[in-house]
């Protein structure tokens, strides 16, 4: 009985020793894991993602520019009465919010010409062309063209945005400049950038003006000799016109010769002086 009790005590002691070892190993493992967690949490945070360069940001912003289309046109219309047709043109211009930029009137013996440079909003350009084609007179010629300047506009806009960024950087450098030499150099850079920015902005304004307002060169033509009602011309009319033209040419020649009378008077004088000089030479 005593031996049995001693065996049980020994078994219990051995079991307790194994349990303590397992517990110590578990605690050690927990400390290792905890230490790793602490080291991970105390490590430096990941660096922020690299920021885009100013030019890249500018490019993405400029890519949203809408299409830039410049429309131009030339029309020549034959009319029966220049003044009446000019009144019709003014009415059409009012309806389409257009205006006359330049006006040139020429009156010759054969015809009358009224040349107009018209600026019209881009959206009303086609309607204006149709109105002139239908209600003014007989269209002799018409030429319409479109030019896509989106790429050119985008390129100038990107360069302009970048120049403005550089300008701000130079201005910041100017505030921190420590000597006169650096200040003068930075001011020269700033002056050059400001001039380039003014040129670029002017070019963008010019393109915007051409895009927003289309240009139409309109010419109103009236023939004086023959009206549009007598478009069929026979041999007799042509023969009479030829005789008239020949007589007018002859009269023009006679008048041209008469206009040279001072030279004709000078010829006898030159002959007299030449003979007199020749006679003296012989003596």
Automatic annotation (TrEMBL):
Residues 167-210 form a coiled coil. Residues 40-60 are annotated as: Disordered. The keyword Transmembrane helix applies. Residues 67-275 form the DUF4349 domain. It holds the Pfam family DUF4349. The chain crosses the membrane at residues 250-274. The keyword Coiled coil applies. Keywords: Coiled coil, Membrane, Transmembrane, Transmembrane helix. This is DUF4349 domain-containing protein. It comes from Chryseobacterium paridis.
């Amino acid at each position: 009985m005593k031996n049995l009790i001693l065996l049980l005590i020994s078994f219990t002691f051995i079991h307790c020793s194994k349990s303590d070892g397992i517990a110590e190993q578990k605690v050690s493992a927990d400390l290792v894991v905890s230490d790793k967690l602490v080291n991970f949490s105390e490590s430096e945070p990941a660096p922020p993602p690299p920021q885009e360069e100013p030019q890249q940001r500018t490019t993405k912003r400029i890519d949203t520019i809408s299409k830039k289309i410049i429309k131009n046109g030339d029309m020549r219309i034959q009319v029966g009465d220049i003044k009446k047709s000019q009144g019709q043109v003014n009415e059409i211009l009012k309806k389409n919010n257009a205006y006359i930029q330049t006006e040139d009137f020429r009156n010759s013996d054969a015809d009358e010409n009224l040349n107009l440079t018209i600026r019209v909003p881009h959206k009303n350009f086609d309607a204006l062309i149709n109105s002139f084609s239908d209600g003014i007179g007989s269209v002799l010629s018409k030429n319409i063209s479109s030019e896509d300047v989106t790429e050119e506009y985008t390129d100038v806009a990107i360069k302009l945005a970048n120049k403005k960024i550089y300008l701000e950087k130079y201005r910041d450098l100017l505030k921190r400049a420590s000597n006169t030499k650096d200040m003068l150099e930075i001011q020269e850079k700033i002056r050059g950038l400001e001039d380039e920015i003014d040129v670029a902005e002017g070019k963008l304004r010019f393109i915007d003006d051409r895009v927003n307002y289309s240009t139409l060169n309109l010419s109103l033509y009236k023939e004086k000799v023959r009206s549009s009602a007598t478009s069929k011309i026979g041999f007799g009319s042509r023969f009479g016109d030829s005789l008239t033209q020949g007589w007018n040419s002859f009269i023009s020649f006679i008048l041209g010769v008469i206009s040279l009378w001072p030279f004709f008077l000078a010829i006898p004088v030159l002959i007299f002086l030449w003979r007199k000089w020749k006679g003296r030479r012989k003596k």
